[in-house]
């Protein structure tokens, strides 16, 4: 990469960092993501601990304390989606995109600089959230808890942070394609909250549904093997999710490049 | 230098910009005029490489914008004053843009001073008035100290003082050898600001000439003649006499006559011979606004129709006559010629007129933007329209506090101007 190009990228990232830290929505969405993930994880952990004795033998055998403490992810990820969508679509809803692209005519540099900064921030928040959710969840689980040193547990906790980040970046790619915040959120929220869960768990659609980004990425949060094993492992699942993210980013980039701003 | 060659933009079946070719030269303010929807903004976006032309091309200094080395330091633009995140402070907004272009942070505070927003620099731009938004947009355009500046409707929403400030700023920037391209739909504003005009309508080039040429080509002299209102037959008599002598007579709303093709002394003689008393005989020049409206008359996209209020009218009580409807002279009316004279309906001679331009100043401040006041004062600022307190007491004054205070005799708008020069030369050092 030529030196000018590097300088340009650094400038974009500095500017994007200023952008992201000077709007209230960043703090709101990311803190909601963290708080909801951790708190809901603790609540489910508490309920699981209380009901453990009344579970069937099979349920007790497949009991996955790590995964239980990540139960809040399903809701917390929605706030990450909002963050990812707003980071990109704010440019369009305010009209800033024109000023930005006039300043950086290299649209790829602009888009990927922006996404790099937002992804970095998501990763930091995601990791902290994931570790907090694990340790606090395990503390609540008490006698049934897992330890960070147990096989596969550290991988799952790290994976939790990566999963949150990838969800946010996927949303950024989708928002870059759709531009408007309402349309992006209107598609992403119901998809990840309902549709994907239905498709991934109803037996008729399961075979296809489990290749959806969140269903596949989810796999990394599980430590004990599932009753119904997936054709991919934890990292394989995350890999599938990465492919989805790359596709969304490529789509966003191509559209941004071609389209009139 | 901005150069467009055969620039065309189509959106589906609609052609927004149609084979537009023009040059914008450095060192002068070039006005870009056209009615709403005539393709001004689309052209501006194509200049900035935001929209891709369907055909033709536009270059800045010989480069298409996207290939321009270090574009944000060479070109500054105000496209849309509302294009800011309302939750971000003015200073942070400019900081984002500065960092994006590799401009040092202290320049942000400089431009905030130049546009007079220093006091609200840390306030969220959500609470800004339209005028403050425009100032913020202008600050963003000035950030990179660029040689080429584009402003899309920069005076929208500004108060008279702000308009004067923008006007002087444009002229100052041009006098420093920069290329200044300003769009507007107000001819009156451009006549005072620009030296060169590019007029478009429905995306096509209508005129590309200096303001001086535009005036001499498009404005016609005429005389306004008024006879005592109580004697309508006198008016007919005079009309016949003037027409007989080869003049063209056009009745105006309000009872006066607009006479062309006869000199003032001749009109006076003819009136005397016809034994008609005159209450008014005054020389006038058709304003640029009229010339502009004539030029763009056929290419206005959004035309208003008369409001008939048919659904709102109550049936009149028996025996009452409906009020006579006097159609206002205006666009789209049969026999439309020009905007109604300001005297219409008012007392014709009660208004003291400071200048010999003959136009009353209805509504003081508004006149600068929409009213015709000041057309006559070509090139010079009509001071009576903008008499802002004492010199040096303007709102922009705080910005000049940093450098040693200019002499008290400096005009208010001179203060920020002085500021820019000083700051800019600092930058170069």
Automatic annotation (TrEMBL), chain B:
Q: Where is the composition biased (Pro residues)?
A: 315-327, 401-414
Domain ABC transporter, which positions? 2-227
PROSITE patterns tied to this protein: ABC_TRANSPORTER_2
**Has keyword Nucleotide-binding?**
yes
GO molecular-function terms, A-Z:
ATP binding; ATP hydrolysis activity
InterPro entries in the record, alphabetically?
AAA+_ATPase, ABC_transporter-like_ATP-bd, P-loop_NTPase
> What keywords are assigned to this protein?
ATP-binding, Nucleotide-binding, Transport
Gly residues compositional bias: what residue ranges? 360-377
One matching Pfam family: ABC_tran
Positions with biased composition (Basic and acidic residues): 419-429
Region (Disordered) spans which residues? Answer: 306-429
The record's annotation in CDD domains points to: ABC_BcrA_bacitracin_resist
Protein family: Belongs to the ABC transporter superfamily.
Q: What is the protein name given in its UniProt record?
A: ABC transporter ATP-binding protein
